[in-house]
Design goal:
328 residues; alpha+beta; seven-stranded antiparallel β-sheet
């Protein structure tokens, strides 16, 4: 009995010590920064980078892996190179463009380089919820700038964190960082030819859209560090859009691109029945109680109030005829 009591005392003491030790090592989580304040910081960092760096090299090598490879470098002291910033709204390629994104109760301005005209090729433009097969190089920015006697010495450091030359699988834009889903729809995929089995690259791609995106951290990982990327890091990706894989998130037989009623390449803002669920995620997106996939036009007869057609000839599984959408 005495031995048993001794064991209880020892166990109780151990629990108390463990509890105290646990409490002493517990710290409060770091508060998340205000999105607007952080965006102001990121915006300055990106603008300074664009104003102090230039396109050192841009490869034009059609049919080869290095086609549209781009190298960005810092303008040396006294250098006369034209900055990336000077290409803003340029009438020729490469050109620096921008778009706005409303998120986190603020309006982001996102800059991106378009390296060549991809609107002349017969490719596909992804929506924000499609998947893309793309090669890319990613690096993050760190602002080491200093100010002395009211004079700012700009010093933006860039650090590479990932490079994918031979992409094997398409990446869903609805499952990546927000910046990708905003910028990739500004580009068009190219054409490809199957290559030799001995080649590390399964196809040779041509005429693809190529660019560079400059993302504030709010459209990247923000306060969540990812791999070697520190939290609150602005990100830069050079990329080549090889192929687009159309998605059908709600498995209703209708590609999500065809549930983009207003044609803005953003199916997330199309909601026919106003139930708060966008059509591309809604298995009954007209709210009539019948599954969308069952509302198919057969031999010219529509079995319900919802008209759905892919081609006009008969059994289909595909494209929605919404409002002013016509048979394809």
């Amino acid at each position: 009995m005495n031995k048993f009591k001794l064991y209880l005392v020892v166990i109780s003491l151990a629990l108390v010590l463990f509890s105290c030790n646990k409490d002493s090592n517990t710290s409060e989580p770091t508060p998340i920064r205000d999105f607007a304040v952080q965006y102001e910081t990121d915006s300055t960092t990106i603008a300074d980078y664009l104003k102090t760096h230039y396109i050192e090299n841009l490869v034009n090598h059609p049919g080869f892996t290095d086609d549209q490879d781009i190298t960005l470098a810092k303008i040396p002291t006294g250098g006369t190179q034209s900055s990336i910033w000077s290409l803003l709204d340029s009438p020729t390629f490469p050109m620096l463009l921008k778009k706005t994104v409303e998120l986190h109760d603020i309006v982001y301005t996102v800059y991106y380089l378009k390296l060549r005209d991809d609107n002349t090729v017969d490719g596909e433009t992804p929506t924000k919820v499609d998947a893309v097969l793309a090669s890319y190089n990613g690096f993050y920015l760190k602002d080491n700038s200093t100010t002395s006697d009211g004079v700012k010495k700009i010093d933006i450091e860039s650090t590479s964190f990932e490079s994918v030359i031979y992409p094997q699988q398409p990446l869903g834009l609805d499952a990546t960082i927000r910046g990708w889903s905003e910028i990739f729809p500004k580009f068009v995929s190219g054409s490809y030819i199957e290559s030799d089995e001995s080649s590390p690259n399964p196809a040779v791609y041509k005429d693809f859209g190529a660019g560079v995106m400059f993302l504030p951290s709010g459209l990247g990982y923000y306060n969540g560090a990812s791999g070697s990327i520190p939290s609150y890091s602005p990100l830069v990706f050079s990329f080549k859009l090889y192929k687009v894989k159309r998605a059908d998130q709600d498995l209703d037989g209708i590609l999500s691109v065809d549930e983009d009623l207003n044609g803005d390449l953003d199916p997330t803002n199309d909601d026919t029945d106003g139930d708060g669920k966008p059509n591309y995620q809604d298995i009954d997106d007209d709210g009539d109680g019948a599954l969308t996939k069952t509302e198919i036009k057969i031999d010219g007869v529509i079995p319900s109030s919802y008209d759905l057609i892919l081609d006009c000839s008969g059994l289909t599984t595909g494209t929605k005829k919404h409002l002013d959408k016509s048979c394809r």
